[in-house]
Amino acid sequence: QVQWTESGGGLVQAGGSLRLSCDVSRSSFSRDAMAWFRQVPGKTHELVAAINWSEGLTKYADSVKGRFTIDRDNVKKTVYLQMDSLRSEDTARYYCNRVLWGYPARALNAWGQGTLVTVSS
Questions:
Q1: How many Cβ atoms are within 10 Å of 98's Cβ, its own excluded?
Q2: I need a surface site. Which of 18, 37, 67, 79 has the fewest CB within 10 A?
Q3: Average pLDDT of the chain, as a whole number
Q4: E strands, the chain, where?
């Protein structure tokens, strides 16, 4: 059983915005962290942003700093990735996954279906 589901992807023009959601209501978190990754076909998963579930602390890849914002809603049990000023190089399939806050580049669970983000120029 998949522990979370990504949604919100789509086609957007360069400079546009998109908000991705990761439903984690089927999972329980206390001291864990969640992260957004992205993958282009044939390439490895790249860490985009991570958030400490309990504290709300965040980490971002240099390529998205100032443009993307990761957040979580403890009531709705959802992790968000607000994507602004999108560029063509942001085109990828985006996934959420559980990570260790001390090393968020390593995904701890199996990958879900992800949600595809396509940025046209």
A1: 19
A2: 67
A3: 93
A4: 5-7, 10-13, 18-23, 33-39, 46-52, 58-60, 68-73, 78-83, 92-100, 103-107, 115-120
- Residue 53, CB-side half-sphere exposure with 13 Å CA sphere: 22
Say how many C-beta atoms besides its own lie within 10 A of residue 1's C-beta: 3
Contact predicate 121/88, CB 8 Å = yes
Contact partners, residue 75, CB within 8 Å, separation at least 6: none
Under 8 Å between Cβ of 8 and 19? yes
CA distance to 36, 68, 100, 118, per residue, from 87 (Å):
17, 11, 28, 9
Tokens 């709300």 belong to 56
Reported as a single tens digit per residue, the pLDDT across 24-64 is 887 765 658 999 999 999 999 999 999 998 889 999 999 99
Q: In degrees rounded to 5, what are phi and psi of residue 89?
A: -70, -5
Structure tokens given for 60: 């971002």
Q: What letter represents residue 12's amino acid?
A: V
